[in-house]
Amino acid sequence: MIEHRVRVHPSADLLPREDQLAWKLAAVATATEEPDADSAAMAVNRVIDNASVAVASLLRRPVAVARAQATAHGAAATGASVFGTGARVSPEWAAWANGTAVRELDFHDTYLAADYSHPGDNIPPLLAVAQHTGRTGADLLRGVIAAYEIHVALVKGICLHEHRIDHVAHLSAATACGLGALLRLPTATVYQAVQQAVHTTTATRQSRKGEISSWKAYAPAFAGKAAIEAVDRAMRGERSPSPVYEGEDGFLAWMLDGPGADYTVPLPAPGEPRRAILETYTKEHSAEYQAQAVIDLARRLRERTGPLERVRSVVLHTSHHTHHVIGSGANDPQKYDPEASRETLDHSVPYILAVALEDGGWHHERSYAPERARRPGTVALWRRISTVEDPEWTRRYHDPDPQRRAFGGRAVITLEDGSVIEDELAVADAHPAGARPFDRAAYAGKFRTLAEGIVPPAAQDGFLSTAERLAELSPGELAQLFPAVDEESVAAYDATLPKGLF
């Protein structure tokens, strides 16, 4: 591993492109060769995971809107598939529709370090371009491994949320790199694409603050679409703002730490295996990742609390990130509002803890139903729940050892008689260091659960069999990574939406 120092340089420095972060990222991506067996197996798991959450979201409004926009941009002979339809469209629009479907339920993979990320968001644009350009499953696999490698490195080295910049700025750079690896582009071409992608996808975190809207699902899809367009432009010989990270009017100087910005991004050394994907983890529950362990903890606590009317207060002692992003430290009244959007509720750990204590589990639809959020007993319990930052949990959150890193907390429940019940959980049960780490059978089980009633059993079998052969797939077989669904039901739902420009 090489630690690459990234700092601001005045234009007069004439910083050589080979010393710029965008070039370093591009060089890692374009040097990516066939992955080792563990990385390849995990990439298959994430392709399965993405399809699981995509098919479960097909009849949700944001996904239908993105799908309608995409199918208005058809491609005659090439193009890429769109979940829920038989259509093939221009790849950037396929990435838009499929990226929204994957992200809508907040139910796929995650990586947390200095910043946040959902590396699975790289897969829809990579799959779209692989289809459109007639690449094989092995090509797609190489691109996925490279994109994860770059995404994890950026999230380890550069914190965006501290400056209220949305995490999709790292995503777009990773996708551009993954596309470069997929297509075996020259390093110089990928370098230009990375710079344009970062320049055009830098946005504020207001999309994840207060009353959170459906844009939370669209944001990564937009980044994937922008990355495809950046690669197309770079392939045509066009250049981009440079150096996009280190320039005196660039990303670090004006969006992040300022003229004195100084970061370290860890990147693999030449010949080093690309294994960053193995550091990432998926979700068993449809909620923000830092709530995963809280839901599992609630299942344990529920057995000890008795009637929840006896609860006077619940305080979750947790990390800075959890307290300030999804906890009461965010100071968002919307996180306690029974009329809040689903997107807001899945970023409210007080709501999630209240429902999990009452129900003993979590469901991607029932747990967010408006009538569920408005239940008087739930609202009363919900408003007795708060979070506090605990320095020890913050330290554990940033532990350099992935096996010791903790994303949970300690819950202290005080009952009306003054007695106290306490318990803690460091990581979710499904985490690699958890009680029940997700394996291939768990990913397949998640797919079958979410696909029930949407994908016929025979089509479920066919999809899983295809996904497991990812490295061997011919160009024509990539379409089989889109499970067959009842397209008439999808079309009927789409017909109920208002029309736009396209």
UniProtKB/TrEMBL annotation:
Highest taxon of the lineage: Bacteria
Listed InterPro entries: MmgE/PrpD_sf (IPR036148), MmgE/PrpD_sf_1 (IPR042183), MmgE/PrpD_sf_2 (IPR042188), MmgE_PrpD (IPR005656), MmgE_PrpD_C (IPR045337), MmgE_PrpD_N (IPR045336)
A single MF term (Gene Ontology): lyase activity
Limits of the MmgE/PrpD C-terminal domain: 285-468
Residue segments, region Disordered: 320-340
Chain ranges of the MmgE/PrpD N-terminal domain: 21-262
One Pfam family matching this protein: MmgE_PrpD_C
The family this protein is said to belong to: Belongs to the PrpD family.
Stated name of the protein: 2-methylcitrate dehydratase
